[in-house]
Specification:
globular; alpha+beta; eight-stranded antiparallel beta sheet; 32% helix
């Protein structure tokens, strides 16, 4: 499709509040219990979907208080808020009404207006400062699409990741890079369970219309299989992991990172770093929701939640890939424990 033949489209920033008449039900209520749950007031204890060095920002602040960087020819990039708006608009068409977006940003690029160019940094007034955030991740939930699995409430979650540092702003206008995804999210801890079928991967887009087209393709392909994907995650609870097996997994994760690259390629890819592995061990011992508890089995479901909680310390541009890797890893370990391994995950158990 040639760019010049496309109609020009303008996407206004939205807060994902469009009302939909879509009513989504259950295909099999005996397997998964559906609930519609009122939104809780988390107060100051709301669990974030990512931590690291990020900070929260509202869509209004992102829209009104941040400059939009340009390419070297002074052509505007697609702004963070227009990226969010484009994806949300397509998600509403497929899934229905969405909650307001939750946004986390990092790596602020700070500047100043020309009239303040001779002032010291400490003397700058707020109105004389400019800022844009190099990296941004966001999520929102689909209303009326809530499930309960393994004793936990989960939402269908829409989101995206964008980082200006991947765009060649020093050149003339070129396609920008984005990632959008749809996944199930555990309510109690905001852990995302991203599967390969639920992420667009890195997409290169020149306009908001490109983002809308590619996100719509993702959502339409995921929608018929959302319950199937949820059952796959739910089934992780049926495979227990002994403490010895967990210790073997942790030991192999540490070993894998230090093997020569040629040997690493012989084993399944795992992007969980040392810091996250340490957090997994801590979570195993002390996590109130998914840690090892007296009289209860520790399962592949617990392993998934402990690992996705651990990688929340990743930078925004690496976090989503690591999140998907955690899901692949937990499913791979389950297959190895059940004698169905075809990808070499049994190496982590030996």
């Amino acid at each position: 499709m040639e760019k010049n033949n496309k109609p020009t489209m303008t996407i206004e920033p939205i807060e994902a509040q469009v009302v939909s008449e879509v009513t989504l039900g259950l295909d099999d209520p005996e397997i998964i219990e559906a609930e519609v749950i009122e939104e809780e007031d988390w107060g100051d204890n709301h669990p974030n979907f990512i931590e690291s060095n990020t900070q929260a920002i509202t869509l209004e602040e992102l829209t009104t208080k941040n400059v939009i960087p340009t390419f070297s020819d002074n052509t505007l990039t697609i702004s963070h808020q227009n990226f969010i708006g484009a994806v949300c608009k397509m998600a509403e068409q497929v899934f229905g009404e969405l909650t307001p977006v939750e946004i986390r940003v990092s790596h602020p690029i700070i500047g100043r207006v020309p009239s303040a160019q001779h002032k010291k940094a400490s003397e700058l007034l707020d109105e004389e400062k400019t800022v844009f955030y190099q990296r941004m991740a966001w999520v929102c939930h689909v209303k009326n699409l809530t499930r309960a699995i393994n004793g936990q409430t989960v939402h269908l979650c829409i989101g995206g990741v964008r980082s200006y540092h991947q765009d060649k702003l020093y050149n003339r206008q070129s396609p920008s890079k984005f990632v959008c995804f749809v996944s199930w999210q555990v309510r109690v801890c905001s852990n995302l369970m991203v599967q390969c079928s639920g992420t667009s991967g890195t997409i290169e887009c020149q306009t908001e219309a490109d983002i809308m087209q590619k996100s719509l393709e993702l959502f339409r392909s995921f929608d018929p299989h959302k319950e199937e994907n949820l059952r796959l995650l739910e089934n992780l609870h049926n495979t227990p992991i002994t403490e010895t097996q967990f210790c073997n997994i942790i030991g192999r994760l540490r070993l894998l990172q230090n093997l020569p690259v040629t040997e690493q390629k012989l084993h399944p890819s795992c992007t969980i770093g040392d810091q996250a592995v340490n957090a997994m061990v801590k979570n195993y011992v002390s996590d109130p929701n998914f840690g090892k508890k007296e009289g209860e089995e520790y399962t592949c479901w617990n392993l998934l939640q402990n690992s996705t909680e651990a990688i929340k310390s990743s930078y925004i541009d690496r976090w989503l890939d690591r999140n998907q890797n955690c899901t692949d890893f937990a499913i791979g370990i389950q297959k190895a424990l059940n004698g169905e391994d075809t990808e070499g995950y049994d190496w982590f158990l030996n």
